[in-house]
Structure to design on (310 residues):
C-alpha cells in the first residue's frame, strides 16, 4: 500500500511536469501526505493467544485501535530444515480483536507463537510479542530442603533475598512482600530470560536451566527482561532489555549472546548462549565471551552444561 502511494505521487508529479501543469504536479502532494501519515504512525500494540477448537487452531489477536499489518508464525528452531509459514493479517482501525483459524497437525513438541506488527507503511515494527505453550507455564518444583515456616509477612526491601518473596501476596495486591522465615536455609537461583532473539530456544533452555537448578535444591524464580520477576514464565510478554534483575545464590542469564542487555554483577553468574552450539557462531562471539569471563562470569553453550558447572 505504501509503495502504491509513492508510485501514484511519482506518476502525478511526472505528468504535471510533462504537461506543464502545476495543478497536476501539486496533486502528488495528496498521496505523499497519506504516505507520511502512515509512516509516522506507530504500529499497533498486540497480544496473542492460541487455543484448540476441535480439529482447528484458533489464534486470537488483541490490539489497540491503530491500523497495521500483523504477521503470525511459529518460532522454529535455528536448525529447522523448513521456514515456518507466515500468516499476514491486515488490522483495520478501531478493530480490537482479530481471530484466525487453521488446521494444524499435532506436534510432539509445541512451539511458541510469534506476532510482529508493522504500521501501514512498514517503516516501524513493534517488538515481537509471543506466547508460550502450556508446557512452559509450570514453575519448577523445588526438590531441595524446604523451609519449616515463617513468622510474618512484611513489605519487600531492596536487598531482600528473592527466595523469600511471598508470591500469593504479590498476586493479590500487586506489591512485593517477603516472608520472615524460620527453619533451615534454602538456596535461591534467578534465571534471567533475554528472549529478543531465537525465542523458542531461549524459552526451552530457560525452562531446562530452572529444572536443573531445582533438582539441585535451589528455589528458582524467573526474571524476564521486559516483564520482571515471575514465579513461572508468563504466557505473553514483550521482550526487551528493560529490567534490573536481582541476584540469587546462583544467577543464570539465558539468551542468544549476539549481544547482552546487561553485565551481571552477581557471583556466581552463568551465561547460556543458546546459539553457541553452532561452532561458527561461537567463534564470532569469542570477544564477548572473553569480556564476560573477565568480570568473573562463566559462559555455557547449553543448559545441560549448567548441571556440571553448579
Amino acid at each position: 500500500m505504501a509503495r502504491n502511494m509513492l508510485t501514484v505521487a511519482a506518476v502525478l508529479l511526472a505528468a504535471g511536469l510533462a504537461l506543464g501543469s502545476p495543478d497536476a504536479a501539486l496533486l502528488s502532494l495528496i498521496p505523499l501526505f497519506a504516505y507520511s501519515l502512515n509512516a509516522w504512525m506507530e504500529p499497533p500494540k498486540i497480544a496473542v493467544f492460541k487455543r484448540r477448537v476441535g480439529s482447528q487452531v484458533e489464534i486470537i489477536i488483541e490490539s489497540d485501535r491503530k491500523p497495521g499489518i500483523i504477521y503470525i508464525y511459529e518460532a522454529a528452531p535455528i536448525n529447522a530444515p523448513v521456514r515456518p509459514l507466515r500468516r499476514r493479517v491486515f488490522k483495520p482501525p478501531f478493530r480490537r480483536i482479530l481471530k484466525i483459524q487453521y488446521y494444524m497437525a499435532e506436534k510432539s513438541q509445541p512451539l511458541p507463537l510469534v506476532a510482529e506488527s508493522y504500521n501501514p507503511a512498514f517503516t516501524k515494527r513493534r517488538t515481537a510479542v509471543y506466547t508460550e505453550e502450556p508446557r512452559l507455564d509450570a514453575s519448577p518444583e523445588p526438590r531441595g530442603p524446604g523451609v519449616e515456616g515463617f513468622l510474618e509477612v512484611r513489605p519487600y526491601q531492596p536487598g531482600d533475598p528473592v527466595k523469600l518473596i511471598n508470591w500469593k501476596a504479590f498476586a493479590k495486591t500487586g506489591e512485593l512482600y517477603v516472608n520472615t522465615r524460620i527453619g533451615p536455609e534454602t538456596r535461591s537461583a534467578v534465571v534471567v530470560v533475554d528472549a529478543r532473539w531465537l525465542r523458542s530456544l531461549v524459552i526451552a533452555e530457560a525452562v531446562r536451566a530452572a529444572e536443573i537448578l531445582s533438582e539441585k535444591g535451589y528455589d528458582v524464580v524467573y526474571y524476564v527482561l521486559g516483564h520482571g520477576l515471575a514465579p513461572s514464565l508468563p504466557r505473553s510478554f514483550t521482550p526487551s532489555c528493560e529490567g534490573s534483575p536481582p541476584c540469587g545464590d546462583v544467577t543464570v542469564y539465558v539468551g542468544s549472546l549476539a549481544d547482552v542487555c546487561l553485565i551481571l554483577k552477581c557471583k556466581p553468574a552463568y551465561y547460556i548462549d543458546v546459539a553457541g552450539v553452532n561452532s561458527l557462531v561461537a567463534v564470532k562471539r569469542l570477544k564477548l565471551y572473553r569480556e564476560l569471563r573477565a568480570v568473573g562470569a562463566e559462559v555455557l553453550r547449553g543448559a545441560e552444561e549448567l548441571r556440571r558447572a553448579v
